[in-house]
Each structure stands twice: as C-alpha cells, then as structure tokens.
Amino acid sequence: MNLRKILGLKKGRRYPIQRDWSGKSLRQRCFEAFDEGKRPIQVVRELRVKESTIFTYFKQWKRFGPHIRKQIVFIKGLLAEGSPDRDRMMAFFAGTCGITIEEFQAILSLPHGLRRLLTRTLPLPVHKDIANKRVVALDAAMAIFDHIAIHGGSYEDVLYTVNHLMKQSQKHRQKIDSDIESLNRQLEVIAKLEEAAAEERRRRPKPHPIAIRKAQVEINQIFTAKLAEAELSYWLRKMELVKEGLTPEQARQRLTELLTDGYDIDRAQKMKAFQDKIDPV
Fold it and tell me: How far apart are CA 62 and CA 39, in angstroms?
C-alpha cells in the first residue's frame, strides 16, 4: 500500500538542509527570531539572507502560529520511543486526524511530517469532512441570498424559517436514527438466536451409523406393512362393489373416482399410480 499516494504526500527534499554550528536550520533560526518579536527586516540584517527568503518564512510563521517549534518539540517528546504514553498518544493523534496508526507513523517519518500535520497542510479525512460542511453552509447561504434578492423579506423572517426547517430536519433525523437503532436491535437478537441454534446443533450428539441403518430398516418395514394393508383394503372394497352388482371394470372405475376425489392433483396422480400398479387394466 502506497501511503504517500493515498495521503497526497509530497516527496522528500531534493537538497539537504543547511544547518549552522548548533544544528539549527535557517527556518528554525527565523522562527525563533519571530517568536522573540523581531521584524523581518531585523532578521535580514542579522542573518544576512535574501529578503524574499525571510519574508517567505515570516508568512509561514504567521500561518503556523507563534511558538510552533515549541509545540513540535513537546509533541515529539510525547511520541518518542521511550515515552510511557507513546502508544496512547499515537492512537489519540491518529483518531483525531481520522487515519490509522500506520498512516500516522508514515507521516511522522517524512521530512516536516509532524509540522505539516499540525499546520493542516496535509489532505486528511477530517479536513475533507470540514470542507464538505463549509460547502453545505455556502450553498445554503447562496440559496437564502437568492430568495431575499428575488422575493424580499426581513432577516427575522429568514432566520425563523431556517430554524423551523432545521428543527423539522432534526426530528426527521432522530426518527430515522431511532428506526435504524430498532432494526439493529432486532438483527442483533436474530443473530444471537441463530448463534444459539448453531451451538445447539454442534452440541447435539450425532447418531451412530448402525442406529441410522436400523431406523431406515424399521421405516421401510412400516411402509411395506402400510402398503400391504392398503392393497388388502383396496381388494376388499372392490369385492364389495362386485357383490353389489357392479362388473369388475365398473368396480375399478368406481374405486378410481373414490381414490382421486377430494385430493390435489399431485396426490390424485399418486393414488392413480398405486391403483394401476396393483390392479392394472
């Protein structure tokens, strides 16, 4: 997984950072001077650097906020390998930024990764959510402006209407959330019941193959006995019809009507097949 591509991170520096005898970069020295209240012109004279570079660092210092270097040093101490709260702090910062711990570690390994994270110069999911909210607010403001420009109206009327619509939307959202929560509870109960049934099936002892074979033999015996009883009943009934004066063919037709009368189509076909087997035409 290419975390640089996913997070939109830039590549590292092409040239190494030039540091002074104390190990500080030019940016660090400029930021320290600005933290002390010095103006860019004073810093240009002291460090003897091009004005454009100093003013660029001054703009960055204003955008980042004063004492950004101290904040970075403090947070680096919290995230150091030997810190007792390192794991908790890693999870906290990753959750705040809306990314995983692995992605947060990848950002820290980049040049100025922590600085870019603190100054919000990285495209993170949490920033995307904020941007979406700003777009929604802007669309709503433009719609209200167009309505006032076309139809007129006072500020109080617009404010009342917006508050009323927001309350209605909030009630609708609460109802939807309540329905979703109720459905989730039902699904949870069903899942627990299915899990209990599966556990019961796993605990139920499996019958021995000999017992299964014995049960099959008993079932076949019962079926054979019932079939013989049905055949005997059929012939006795046919004999009674013949005694009543019907011919064997008429008795058979009468039994066909009796066997198939009042049944559904499938069962009638089965009864007809049973008669054809024991008393073919």
Answer: 12
pLDDT score at 51? 86
For residues 263-272, b (16+ Cβ closer than 10 Å) or e, as one string?
Answer: eeeeeeeebe
* CA distance readout (Å), 53 to 33, 57, 212: 14, 6, 90
3-state helix, strand, coil in the chain (%, to 5): 75, 0, 25
Where does a domain end: 86, 121, 156?
121
Indicate the residue among 121, 146, 167 that finishes a domain: 121
Q: Is 164 exposed, middle or buried (0-12, 13-18, 19+ CB in 10 A)?
A: exposed
Overall domain count for the chain? 2
Residues 132-143 have pLDDT tens digits of: 776 677 677 777
Contact 26, 53 (CB under 8 A): yes
Range of the domain at 269: 226-278
137 vs 203, higher pLDDT: 203
Would the pLDDT of 45 be above 50? yes
Give the DSSP per-residue string, 218-278. Answer: HHHHHHHHHHHHHHHHHHHHHHHHHHTT--HHHHHHHHHHHHHTTS-HHHHHHHHHHHHHH
DSSP letter assigned to residue 197: H
Asked if residue 130 is part of any domain, the answer here is no
The answer to whether residue 195 is domain-embedded is no
